[in-house]
Amino acid sequence: MGKLIPVLLIVLGLGAGLGAGLMLRPAPMPEDKADSAPAPQPQQLAATEIGLFEFPNHFMVPLVTDDRITAMIVVQLALEIRNDSRALVVASAPRLRDRLLQVMFDHANTGGFRGAFTAHDTLGLLRRNLLEAAQHALGEGVVLGVLITDLLRTGA
Question: What residues does each domain of the chain span?
């Protein structure tokens, strides 16, 4: 009986923690109709004309607090591109990577990767900024979308 009491206390504590977590969870954010609508495309492309370009390496973004790196964000990106522009994208990959990395550094420096950084609003803003940077580098008709395929935060 004495060994059963700690197990019972652990189970009760887990149940209470789960119940408190469910009760104190933030309310879901209402979706803006502007965010939920697909981005207008200058022209409709057939599915065979759209391809993916995946960056071969992850993007690593440090989170700095008080002049010290406290955590790292590791991001894997892919771009939705026109298939006939693949050679341009491959040739411009280092310049494009630099621009996208700068956008992620700016996002990190403004606190975008703190707290609930995977929230729809936060990732939507990041995707939009990445898309604008990619389109600025290669042209609006080349890059059609940005996909965040992996996202990991390490550290505190």
Answer: 45-155
